[in-house]
User: What shape does this take?
Amino acid sequence: MAIGVLTGFINVLMLSGSLFMLQVYDRVLPSRNVPTLVALFVLVTGLYAFQGVLDMTRGRLLVRIGAFLDEHLSARVYDVVVRLPLKTQNRADGLQSMRDLDQLRSFLSGTGPTALCDLPWMPLYLGLCFVFHVWIGITAIAGAVVLVSLTIMAEVLTRAPAKEAVTFGQSRMTIAEASRRNAEALQAMGMIGRLSGIWSDVNAKYMHHQQRASDVAGALAAASRVLRMLLQSGVLAVGAYLTINQEATGGIIIASSILVARALAPVELAIANWKSFLGARQSWHRLSRVLTLLQQSETPPMVLPKPSRDLSIEQLTLTPPGQQRVVVAEASFAVKAGQAVGIIGPSASGKSSLARGLVGVWQPVRGKVRLDGAALEQWPSEALGPHIGYLPQDVELFDGTVAENIARFDSNAESAAIIAAAQAAGVHDLILRLPQGYESPIGEGGMALSAGQRQRVALARALYGDPFLIVLDEPNSNLDSEGDEALTQAIASARRRGAIVIVIAHRPSALKAVDLVLAMAQGRIQAFGPRDEVLRKVLQLPQAQPQPQPQPRQMKVVSDTEAKQA
Assistant: This one.
């Protein structure tokens, strides 16, 4: 509303130049009155100054509107970046949302909104052209119709290529990011050239659609500039014709020319900014969709007491985000405080999927995961997090120090709690041997550490704060014998303090400290019970059947005719 009011004042003040020119030609020059000229010049100077202040204020206000939008949406957009992969398999959408917010902010801070706000004031200028003379008004209307038609053409012709350009731009960024993350594998296996070819194909399609949109927008912008200059000259010609026939004055010629130019300037500016306007509109639609998809309740759930008794899973059925394929079907079991469960089974049997369901990463299609009787969805995420320790199969650390990663980037973390978590994971001495100890920076993704060191630091992060439920997905995949022993001690220590530990393992060494084993196959629980009993049942091999001895084959000589028939 404030932008609209300021735009109204600015557009009224835009008449100052035309009216000044009209008064100079029709009053000052015929009368040769210098004081009148000075008074008019002082007046128009003040009006221009006032217009400049309002124009500057409008620009500063637009910048702050963009900042206001960013301030109120940036946290929600970051939430989209984090939560969207848990809802859909398209992981590029989250980063696209961040780019969409940048696009919106830059559009609001530029000249695009100014042109759109000036467009409704075109009738005022065109009406004044009719006040000067009917034919001047008709000429201005004809030019306005042509330029508005160009604006509509810009909308129709650039919408599809602009949308396709965004789609392929997103795809090429996804390929580039995946290539950056897997640079070592690409180099070692000679895949750089092939991935480069794939990226080049997608980039070529992106550039094709980008060029189409730019070519159309540029051609229409050039046509609008030429038509506006032609129209301005046409108004001068019409004014001159009317003056020759003594139907208008010389001042009207100049004033109407300036007035028509001002009336049609917003149309030309709108066409020039049409590409950014389309991008901002598409960004707003995409943001609206993802924010609606991930809309959270206005009233957060009530914070429940710290869990301390049991974990129960009731008919849990899980599907990957954005898919209908069931990967865990009707899983049910219960674990009490102080117990540890080892989950075993062949690859793709649903073990890691079950782990994601236990910590609330994947929402169940059916069934419940309960801590002390309360379903996980009854807990606010920030309140549930301290009670859960999770070590995913693919270990990811963040750019920061070792201490920050162990403390889950809690700014109020106490040194004693960080050291206690490291000692519980058996990684304290290892950290002390690093160049800066706990303050050692580990780089993006923890690249400054080895795979085993990253896994043990991630284990300490999972144990930080003594969580009640600890879920470890193949925690010893990169560990040596010392790391295996530290893992066993960490599980035993967590059980002694009353925690529940879930361990997913392919190597038997990870099952030393568990007392229960759950066997899975094809997404279903096959057995659950005491460790030794389930292992004997699951790992029991069928007795070998005696193989029949092959009989010696007798050779027979055949003729060429018999061989051909055979």
